[in-house]
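#struct-pred
JK: can someone run the complex with NDP? inputs below
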Amino acid sequence: MSDNSTKQFVIFGDPVEHSKSPQMQNAGFKNLNIDANYEKYHLKAEKLLKKTFMEKGIDGANITVPYKEAAFKQADEIVGVAEKIGAVNTYIKHDDKIFAYNTDAPGFMKAIEDFGEIKTVLLMGAGGTAKAIAVALKEAGIQVSVLNRSKNRLEFFKELGCKTFTWSSFMLDSFDLVVNSTSAGLKDDEFPFEKRRLENIFFNAKYAFDCIYGKETPFLKLASREGLKVKDGEDMLLYQGVLAFKLFTGQEAGVSTIEAMRAGLKNS
Ligand code: NDP
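RT: done, structure tokens with the ligand placed:
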């Protein structure tokens, strides 16, 4: 049972029912005996975000689809890489002000650490997640090519200094890492790009990462078959949470806390 001294955290989203963040963050609090509680909050309109955050008596929040850009606009202070991304997933209240962070970007970088050295990346997709990943990779001095189904979202990446392609303008090259940050494969069995052309890409690549987690997508299955080292999005989700945990509690999650959070994530 929580009382006034219990720190309160929520995740705002619409829909939010599917979110695994509460079970992950609560497992971390429990592991370190932190008096805190994390819940889902179904926010029905973006205009209610700041008001709800300020009036609900909560200490921090995560923000998920479709509010990450609205959360960026409504924050009082933007911290770190979030400024370049234009979207945030973490709010902290400090002296009645909202400090906003993007932990998806460093979470992704942490998740690809166990691949070998990466100098060139082909990033498929141009949505919110792709923006965070492209900024993180560029900050690390890595060359990024972005391939998207349609043209209109590519301008952001061009301005960031990425090479940009649509399906029709794509030219084959060799890449250390190929990332699927589209939603192809999430609720269907689609490839993010024509299968035959994807096979050629994998033939000239070393590693493949899919932001989708909890299933082997056609993208990852094909990459494995072509002999690439592969990873799904579980670690990205975990590490964005681990970084948010530190912002929420002021405490570093060590190995046992990270493993408790991973186990929390996997609880159905
Ligand atoms: P957005 O809706 O912002 O972007 C979706 C992107 O996918 C667009 O570039 C869109 O292209 C492309 N796309 C959609 N359907 C297809 C298709 N059938 N074939 C090719 N391209 C397609 O989504 P997000 O950026 O928020 O999320 C992207 C993925 O990342 C999702 O699968 C999500 O689950 C996952 N994710 C994982 C996280 C993690 O921690 N592991 C965190 C956040 C997201 P177009 O512009 O042409 O429409």
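RT: quick notes.
The chain has a mean pLDDT of 96.
The chain has two domains: 7-102+235-266, 106-232.
JK: thanks, will look after standup
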